[in-house]
Every structure is written in C-alpha cells, then in structure tokens.
Amino acid sequence: MNMQSPEPETVVTDEDTGTRPLLSVEDLQTYFFTDEGTIKAVDGASFDVYPGRTLGIVGESGCGKSITAKSILQIIDNPGLIVGGQVKLSSNGDASKNLLEMEPNGEEIRSIRGGEISMIFQEPMTSFSPIHTFGNQIIEAIRLHSSLDKEEAHELAVDWLRRVEIPSPEQRMSEYPYQFSGGQRQRAMIAMALCTEPRILIADEPTTALDVTTQAQILDILQTLQKQNDMSIIFITHDLGVIAEVADVVAVMYLGKVVEIGPVESIFSSPKHPYTKALLSSMPTIDAAPRERMPSITGAIPHPQNRPSGCSFHPRCPSYMSDICGLKEPELVSVGTDQQTSCFLYGRD
Amino acid sequence: MESNPVEQELAPEIEDIVEERISVASQRQLIWWRFRKHRVAVVATALIVIFYTIVIFADFLATNVPEDSEAFRGLMPPQQVHIFDGWKPSPHVCAVTGARNPITFQKDYVTDCTEKIQVRLFGRGYDYKLFGVIPTDRHLIGMSDDTLRPEDYIYILGTDKQGRDMYSRLLFGTRISLTIGLFGVALSLVLGIVLGAISGFYGGLIDNLIQRLVEIVRSIPSIPLYMGMAAAFPSDWSILKIYFAITIIISLFAWTDLARVVRGRFLTMRDEDFVTAAMLSGASQRRIIFRHMLPSFYSHIIAAATLALPLMIIAETTLSFLGLGLRPPAISWGTLLQDAQNVQTIALTPWLMIPALPVILVILALNFMGDGLRDAADPYSN
Amino acid sequence: MLGYLIRRLFYAVLAVWAVSIISFFIINLPPGDYVTSYIAQLAIQGNIIGEEEAESLREYYGLDQPNYVQYLKWMNQIRQGNLGFSFEFGLPVNDVIGERLVLTMILALATIVFIWIAAIPIGILSAVRQYSIWDHTFTFFGFVGLAVPDFMLALIMMYFSFVLFDFSVGGLFSPEYVTASWSLGRGLDLAQHMIIPIIILGTAGTASLIRITRANLLDELRKPYVATARAKGMSEWRLILKYPVRMALNPAISLTAYILPFLVSGSIVVSVVLGLPTVGPILLKALVAQDMFLAGGIILLIGWMTVVGTFLSDLLLVWADPRVKFEGR
After folding, report:
1. Most buried by CB count within 10 Å: which residue of A141, B125, C148, C321?
2. Helix, strand, coil proportions of chain B in percent (round to 5)?
C-alpha cells in the first residue's frame, strides 16, 4: 500500500459540526484471568465514534484492538472479563445507555448486537457455520432484529447480496460457505452485518486475510454502503495503508492502551507519540534510498504478563526520559486540534 | 522522522526470563514440564510404578505360596490384622478354626483370639529366591523368628474355594496380567507403526488398501473372535504357549488404533519443510522415515501405547474369566475372578471379587497417565 | 455422495466376506474335527466306533474334503438359509439360535439409543459449564465407566442388587413370558429386564461419547463462527445448540459406528454373566465343545449384523454432514 498523506477530505471534530459522539468508550479495561496470571489485554482505552464517520484503530498484533472491539458488544470469551470503563451508546434524544452495564447475553444487549451495532470478522471462512447455508444464516440475522416473515426476510437477504455485488444472489442463498471464494464470503458477511441497518459497523481486520485486489474491492463496497446508510464504522487493522484510505479519525493502540488519537491527516503528517512515529517510519517506502537499512522499532513487544512499569513503551522508546517514563503512566493530553497523545514529552503531570 | 533510535538499556521487566528458558529447553524437558502440570496423571504414573514394583517383588510381598491349597481352609473370610494388643503395639492375627455347619453344610469360621499369631514386618515366611537368584525366606509381612508352623500362616484377604491365599495369589496375578499387556502392546506397536508409517508416508493406493484393512478389522466384533481363537488352543499346550498365543491374538485387533495415530502424524508431517529438505539432500526414503520423521513423534507413540495397554488387560482378563484364556495353575486377575461368576457365590463370599479392584485401578491409572502423556506429547502445540 | 455410498457398500461387502473366511478359519482351528470328538464322546459312554464307520461319518458330513471345498459348501448352505447342524444340542443351528440373535441385536441397538440420550446432553453441559462441579463429576464417572470391564460391572451390579435390594438380576424375561410369542406385554417385560444390561453395556460407550462430545464442543466453542453468531444477537443456548453442537455431533455419529462391534462383543460377555438368552452363552458353550457349525454360524451372523450396522451409521453420517455429501470424504 502506498504511503502518502491522504487527501484532506472530511475531517470532523466536535468543534466543527457540534455533533455529539454516537459511541463513547471511556477507559475500557478488559483483563484475562488465566492460570498463568492476569493478562491486561485492554488497560484504559478511550475513544469516540461520530455519526457517519470512520474511526480506525491501528496497532501491532496483540495490542488489544480486537479485544476492545469485542468488549463493546460484550462478546469476550472466557477467561476474559471486562473489569472497568464505560461504553456509552447514544439513542434518540438525550439519554445514552452504557452497554457495559447491560446484563451479558441479556435481551437488551442482544438487541443491540447485530441490530444497532454489527460486527464483521477477519476470517470469513471460519466465521460462517460450514454446515448451514448462507441463506439460513443471513435470514436468521434479519429475523432476529425485525418482524419480517420468512419470505420477506428471504427477499431482503437476496437484495443485500446484490448490493454487495455477489453474482446470482438468489442461487447463492442455498449454497454453503465452502462453495464461495474468500472475497465473496467477506461480502456475504458484510451483507449479513448490514442487512439490519446498524448505526455502527465494527470491522475487525476485514481485509487482512484477503489479497490486495480483493481488499480494494471490499473497501470500496464498505465505503459505498457507509455513505448510503450514513453509518459509522470502527475499522480495526494493523495495516497503516488501509487506515490512511478509510479512516477519518485514527486511534493508535499499544499494549492495551490508546497512545495517540486524532484526525487521520494529523496523525500521518505530524505524529506526536514516539510509538506512532516509529510505526510510521518503519513502513517501507518507495522513496527510501537503496540499500539503506529498513528502520524498525528496537526491542520486541513485551509479554502481556510482563508489562513494563510506567509508560509501557518506555523500554523501546528512543525519547526515553529516565526520570519519569519508567515510573509514572502518562495520561492522554491534547497536542493539537483534536489530537491527543499520552506521552510525557508533551507535558508532565 | 527521527534519526536511528538509540539503543537503550532494556528495563528489567523486559527481560522475559521465562521466555528465555522456554526457548532453550530441550523437547524432552518441555514434555516433562507439561506432563507435570497434570497432577492426576502424575499420581497415576506413580501408581503404575507401584504396580510394576509388585510384579518384580511379588515373592517378597506375598505371605503364602500361591499354589498352596488346603480344602480345610477353603472360602475363609479375610483375617483382620490387629495392630494393637490391648495397649502394646503388637501386630497380630487371631487364629481361626473352621467347622462345617451341620445345617447349611457351609463352613463356619470362628475367630479365636486367645491364640494369637504374631506378625511382623520383614518376618519369616516360605522359602523363595529373590529376583530368582538370592535364596531367602524374608517377606514384607511375615511371622516371627521362631519355628514356623503351618498354622502360623495368615490370610489377609481370605481364601478361595481350594483354600489358597487370595492376597498372595493377587500379587502373583499381577505379574501375568501386567506383563501380558506389555508384550501385546509391543506387538501391536510393531504392526501399527509399520503399517501406519507405510500408509501415511506413501499415501495413494497403499494407503487406501491399508485403511480398508483397518476398517474391516474394526468393524468385526473382537470378543467372539478372541473366544473362537482361544477355544481352539489344544488342551496340551503349555501355559507359556497359551500366554503368547493370547498375546498375538489380541494384538491382531489392537494395532488399528496405533496405526491410525501413526498414519495421521505421517500425513501431516509429509508436507513439512524438514522432510522436503531431507529428500532434497538425497536421503533414502527409509532413512527419512526412521531417522527424520519417526523421532518427532515418539511421545505420541508412547501415549498411544499407554492407552492401548488397558485394552490388552481387559481382553486377557475377560478371556481368562470366561475360561478361554489362561488356565490353572496360571494365575492372572482373570483366572482369579473365575471363581466369582455367579450371584450366590458373590453374595456369600464377596472377597472373591477383590481381584476386580486392581484391574479397575490399573486401567484407570493407565488411562490418566496416557491422557497426560498425550496432552504433553506435543510441546510445540501451544 | 453416491460415490461415497457405493464405496462404503463395497467395503461392507468386503468386510462381510472377510468375516465369513475368518469364521470358517476359526471353526477349523481346533485339531481334529467333530467326528474325532464325537467318537471320543461316544467312547466315554462305552460305544466304540470303528475306522470305517468314522470314515463314512466324515464323508456324510463332508469332512473329508479339502478346506476350500468345505468352505464353499458351507457358504452355499448358508445362502439357502441353512446354518447347519449343532452336534452339541442335537438341533439345527437355526433352531438353537432362534430368537437369540434378534435379542442380541435389540440389546445392542437399545444400548446405542441409551448412550446417545445419556451422553450427548451430559457432554454438552460439561463443555458449556467447563470446570464446574458437574463437569468434574461427570468426567470422573466417565473415567470409571471406561476403566471397569463390562463383565466386572455386571458382577458388581449383580452383587449390589442382590445384597441391597434382594433383587436377582438376570434373564431377559419373566418366567411367564419366556416361551410366549411376541405381544405388547412381552415387549414391555423385555424392556423392563433390559434396563440393567443396557446400563452395564452402555457405561463404557457413554463415557467415551461424553468425553468426545465435550472435547469437540470445547474446540468448536472457541471458533469464530460462534463469535459471529453471538455478535448477531442470538441467545446463548440457542446459538450453542444450533451451531457448535451440530458441528460437534458429527464425530459423535462416527463414534457410534465404531462402538457397535464393541457393544456386540460386550453383550456376549455380559450375557454370560447375567444369563441372558442372547447369543453369548451358547457361543461359549459351542466353543468349549468345539461344535463347529454352531460356533461358526454364530460368529458369522454376528459379524454380518455388525458390518450392516456400521454401514447404516455411515449412511446416517452422510445425511448429517453436508460436507461429506459434496466432498465425498
């Protein structure tokens, strides 16, 4: 993916339009309690999602971005537990509901799952049941959140398959997942997620398992459908190039925390956090001098059970300050218009 | 963009000591560590070790000569060993006299505690040769040092119909029951590994043929066939011959599971890079199979073998119980249970069922041990 | 799918043929033939048979022909529905076997149903509530069930029911129904008596199936499609039953096919211990007496029934798993 500064399209801030966030995640904490110890997969993630906008969450594998997404809908597997934070979803009018306060697997959150907030996953092959037809699975999603009868649901499903550009949708309804190609499966997953017209779509690495061409097509479809339905997207990936293309706002995560968040151009053109800088500079560019050694971030990601004290990035940080970085944890501070970062370089407490 | 990041001294928390250790530990160490975590499997293994110790030390642990029969003391209930005599610690057994009840025609045994038989650890008993070499008469549980009279022998678990000591017979039965299984497993291993390896490595038609064979063998009920074959043994065959013949028969059916495991592993491994590398460097196929592929799943084979052992034991025990397996005077748990075949016998003399206990224990222990081994066998699967 | 079925049918036929060869082989294993033991038996009773008479007897029973001829003759007989003559009982083999074979099969099939009904819900519960007290309890009982050989379990149950309940376990019919013809009453009586043998026979199989179901379900529960279903907003139990359980059931069905031979084997031993009027006790008798036609006939029939049963459950597997239908594997 070519790495250039993206076109300054539609940058939205709350100062610009004055809209309130559709979804507001505050200080989310999800821990895994295993025999070998407690793993703090997400340890203080905060971000907002605005109507019709795309929030990109980016970070290396294991930084907790998938878990964050799953925590929003409370679909964490054992032995994970959400231990703190709030996830506020605004409904019509002023009131907002805290999703984390809802009973896990209770009726309320189940109506939100797949209803107001849908999710698509990384591996389209294994994300569908291999022994049920597509039609069966899509219709199920429709009827869970509407009162349509079987025929009406069937019609709607076919219509959606058409909208995601799957050829001969009528026929596909009675076929099984293994009869589809990877790209088609992902489209079918998108159809299944969007046929209930959610306000927010959480896309967990939807293109990672696909080849580049298919990737472009999927991104296209997503953006088209987003515009058509005025939907917000939370797009999770480790691919900076994809983020540059789809996101309006970017949140960078490291070891379970959001270390920087801001509009996509600002993040790419003037990253503030040392990790973000290192991440961006470690991408291979066509402009690099030949035979120049590829820059990489020193050290390795620490084992989640051996989190460094203080700022979790400090052992690998080129701007490490020995008097504070290993001792205190930084909070998110404002470093520009709508850009925030958690680093002591920009203000000690 | 920042200039080259300066190498910083890594904070102590980063030094993932655990990761270091794991990355340099040998495969065997990894397997051992994982196995250790299964506490049940470890306990089970200890139990198995104890049992095999009994196999070696049967004579030492026994109190009576197993074949020693005396109708007089037939069907005697277990004798209780009293540790204390009044207040003094003085292990003893009360003497027992038996008389035939004139009404029921059954033996009534009466304990007479005025006559005490002193019992002590490492006491004297019958003569035997430890390890088959060293002549001695010391036993774990024996009588005191003065002259040993025939009435001094004790029967901790009672006697069978012919008055033979159940406890000693049980100990000796362990020998045959546990070793027959070993030979059987060894045979099945050979058959299973060879056929499984050929099947998995070559694939194609050979694989198909062998798989069909496996299926056919598996779809035939085994016990009627065991019975049929065992019934065919001429009655003049020596016990040893029968012993081996039974082993062979049981192995003919038991190899299929092992073959399946081996084949499965070969199939997955065939496509691994290290095999391709070996082939490219010109190694012969036999060498590839035996020196490259086989060693990487010794642990799986051991696990499968451990799980096959209980089947052998059950098969032999069942056959002997039915009278089709080993015959007297051979002693195995199965032959011991022959006496416990109907309700009346069991109701009146329940101690005849005691040989069932070691069978259950050993099978349970072997299953747990095999499970633990199987889980630990793939140290890289984490 | 058709290809798959034809292949299974072919292997079943092969297995059937193999069974017949093996049975014949077994029959002829004992040294000497029936005539020898017949003569010995008569000798004990004081009747001496001369050489010539022995020869003619052999000729009459076809025992002087080479093996393969005897085999073919025997197969031919069987094709005509005649299993030969039982010397031990002095009756045609068909009569001796009588309804015993049917009862053996009823017992085996009923045990399979029991295993399914018992093991699947327990397996599901164990997996969904992993590490709970139920899980540990069932796992423990499962292990015990696997470890105790059938005949031993039979002995133990006999003992306890006799000592504790003064109830004599044994037989499949109450005295008044033994020789009666089939009726609803007889059927109910049979069902009642079958309970204990079924439990005894089914323990090992139930234990196996619980373990397999639990293990497979645990695997499936971690898979992405379960997360997808949850993200759609399905209720927990509904999604568990609809998706991962269905997937985990497939190995369970394969297991059933595998279990049938063991059940038949086990029923032989258990019927000897409990004195059930199935095929087991007379097989034992036949083998001990080296009664060739009877023993061989029983082994043959049992083998065939088992192979057929296994084939039928292959059919079931095909119906249950659409992937097998299309991929043929």
Report:
1. A141
2. 60, 15, 25
User: Both tokens of residue A217?
Assistant: 């097509």
| Contact check, Cβ <8 Å, B321/C19 | no
Q: What is the pLDDT of residues B201-250, one digit of tens each?
A: 777 788 878 887 887 777 777 777 777 777 777 767 777 777 788 788 88
Compute the CA torsion angle A281, A284, A286, A292 (nearest 10 deg).
Answer: 80
Across the interface, of C225, C231, C323, the residue whose CB is closest to A126 is: C225
Q: Give the whole-angstrom CA distance, residue C194 versus residue C50.
A: 50
Phi, psi of B120 (to 5 degrees): -150, 160
Q: What is the pLDDT of residue A54?
A: 93
d(C-alpha A90, C-alpha A228), whole Å: 21
E strand intervals along chain A: 23-34, 37-49, 54-58, 80-90, 96-98, 117-120, 200-204, 232-237, 249-254, 257-263, 333-336, 339-341
Paired residues of A97 in beta bridges: A89
Beta-carbon separation of C225 and A127 below 8 A: yes
Give the distance from residue B344's alpha carbon to the nearest chain C alpha carbon, in angstroms: 9
Phi, psi dihedrals of residue A180, rounded to the nearest 5°: -105, 160
DSSP at A28: E
Contact between A131 and C234 using a beta-carbon 8 Å cutoff: no
Contact by Cβ (8 Å): B312, B254: yes
Query: Residue C162 and residue C150: Cα distance in Å, rounded?
Result: 18
Task: List the structure tokens of A95.
Answer: 């009131």
- Distance CA(B92)–CA(B83), nearest Å, equals 6
Separation of alpha carbons B310 and B303, rounded Å: 12
pLDDT of residue A6: 45
> Which residue type sits at B68?
D
pLDDT by residue (tens digit) across C138-188?
878 777 777 788 888 888 887 777 777 766 666 777 777 667 677 777 778
Non-local CB neighbours of A134 within 8 Å, separated by 6+ positions: A128, A161, A172, A173, A174, A175, A176, A177, A180, A188
pLDDT single digits (tens) A125-140: 888 888 888 889 999 9
- The crossing angle, in degrees rounded to 10, of helices B298-322 and C150-165 is 50
